[in-house]
UniProtKB/TrEMBL annotation:
GO terms for cellular component: cell envelope. It comes from the Bacteria. PROSITE patterns: CYTC. SMART domains: Haem_bd. InterPro entries: Cyt_c-like_dom, Cyt_c-like_dom_sf, Cytochrome_c_Peroxidase/MauG, Di-haem_cyt_c_peroxidsae, Haem-bd. It is found in: Cell envelope. It comes from Phocaeicola barnesiae. This is Cytochrome-c peroxidase. Pfam families: CCP_MauG, Cytochrom_C, Haem_bd.
Length: 462
């Protein structure tokens, strides 16, 4: 046998052996297991927790001079982007997994970006086989069907991470009427000049279109006002998530020294009780009358009605293929391509997780202004260093109406906000065409309130 033939034969034998070993260590979970058990096995075998956890067990080569630096950078980025521990814990208990986590898992599997090639080339068996990919995607779909049913969408969009907004939710209309009055009542402020609607105007997209809102005595706060529209869908309230419910949120501004500046709700109750007709009407619904719990409960019930269904995008999801233009659909494709749809999920297209502002680049260093307390984000509440500069993801419904953008209100236009998000969260510099298409898509998210389309001209369309 010629020497060259022996070499070829040796290579083929070696390849066959390696392939056999690979098949042995990269074995898909049993088809007899339920989808949760399959997914748990896939996560373990693919080494996800080697990077996506607070205290991962680093491999031996993490101590090498060059390779170790790269490994630690990858681990840091992975953990900053996605802490998988809560997901794994929920998975093992058979509980609901965050829909943001579901979207993140689905995206990296569809893209084939995880596990990273430089990881599975060293850790044999970590790469996902086609069978494992299908099992993981089926698990995501099963989770959505069980916990996040997309009942309003057309069948072809039933597994989308985004769902159309409901026309209404069940409420107590007696409380809604009272809550509406309180929402617009300046007596909730110490000097009778500021109401909830002062900062959350229903004719201005649920915000005030200012960088920082103005409170009593002309004082300005230090954070941009989020929209009150569709806040019912948020998993927590405020940028830093300090309020668990809409009622908790409603209790904050009246006692904030900059916003409404009351020292207690007793001041508010005293003024409201002086209004005999209002006090009588209120006691018919709340027999114990005005107090903090009842006032905030009524406001919460009203705010639950602030839904904006029937956007053109929702009509498209419901099956109307003519509802969006080719440019807008191209923007939606980019929205998914550039990972926007992994955090901006659900009915409100956001409000379901805390995410770091500046995953790929240092947003605050580039901003060039002094850091504020509000820039700390979720860290203000937890004192966990991982939560520094991490904020509740804003919902994108009616986003074309709610400028300026970001928690600090620094992005004056939607174009600026889109480019900044792509740069700092994804590491992508958008072309002008991509920016235009993404903005066109975002403009389709404007919905209706009380049957009328919200508009940019500070009025509801007649």
């Amino acid at each position: 046998m010629k020497k060259s033939s022996k070499i070829v034969l040796s290579v083929l034998v070696a390849a066959a052996v390696l392939f056999g070993v690979y098949r042995m260590v990269n074995k898909a979970p049993s088809a007899s297991l339920d989808s949760n058990a399959q997914m748990a096995e896939i996560i373990e075998s693919s080494g996800c927790m080697a990077c996506h956890a607070a205290n991962p067990e680093l491999p031996f080569y993490a101590n090498f001079p060059v390779a170790g630096k790269l490994v630690k950078e990858d681990v840091q980025l992975a953990y900053r982007s996605f802490d998988m521990v809560p997901m794994v814990e929920a998975l093992k208990k058979g509980e609901k997994v965050s829909e943001v986590d579901l979207a993140k898992v689905e995206k990296v599997i569809l893209d084939g970006t995880m596990p990273m090639a430089k990881y599975y080339l060293i850790h044999w068996g970590a790469s996902l086989s086609d069978t494992e990919k299908q099992m993981a995607l089926a698990w995501v779909k099963n989770q959505r069907e069980a916990f996040y049913p997309n009942l309003l969408a057309d069948a072809k969009w039933s597994n989308e991470a985004i769902r159309p907004i409901q026309d209404s939710v069940a409420v107590d209309m007696r409380k809604v009427i009272l809550g509406n009055l309180l929402f617009h009542d300046v007596r909730l402020s110490s000097d009778n000049t500021v109401s909830c609607s002062s900062c959350h105007g229903l004719n201005t997209g649920g915000v005030d279109n200012k960088q920082y809102s103005e409170g009593v005595g002309g004082q300005f706060g230090g954070v941009n006002a989020p929209s009150v529209y569709n806040a019912h869908y948020n998993f927590v309230q405020f940028w830093d998530g300090r309020a668990a419910t809409l009622a908790d949120q409603a209790a904050g501004p009246p006692l904030n020294p900059v916003e409404m500046a009351n020292t207690s709700f007793d001041e508010i109750c005293e003024k409201l009780n002086a209004d005999a007709d209002f006090a009588k009407a209120f006691k018919e619904v709340y027999p114990d009358g005005f107090n903090q719990a009842n006032i905030t409960d009524a406001i919460q019930e009203f705010e639950r009605t602030l839904l904006t269904p029937n956007s053109r995008f929702d009509k498209y999801l419901k099956g109307d293929d003519s509802a969006m233009t080719a440019e807008e659909l191209a923007g939606y494709d980019l929205f998914k391509k550039y990972n926007c749809a992994t955090c901006h999920v659900g009915e409100n297209m956001g409000g379901q997780s805390y995410e770091l502002l500046g995953i790929k680049h240092d947003y605050f260093a580039d901003r060039g202004t002094e850091l504020t307390v509000e820039d700390n984000g979720r860290f203000k509440e937890t004192n966990n260093e991982r939560d520094r500069h991490r904020f509740k993801v804003p919902g994108l419904r009616n986003v074309a109406l709610t400028a300026p953008y970001f928690h600090d209100g620094t992005q004056a236009t939607l174009d600026e906000a889109v480019k900044a998000m792509a740069k700092y969260e994804v590491g992508v510099d958008l072309s002008e065409q991509e920016t235009k298409q993404l903005v066109a898509f975002l403009q389709t998210l404007t919905g209706e309130y009380q049957g009328k389309l919200l508009t940019n001209d500070n009025e509801l369309q007649k």
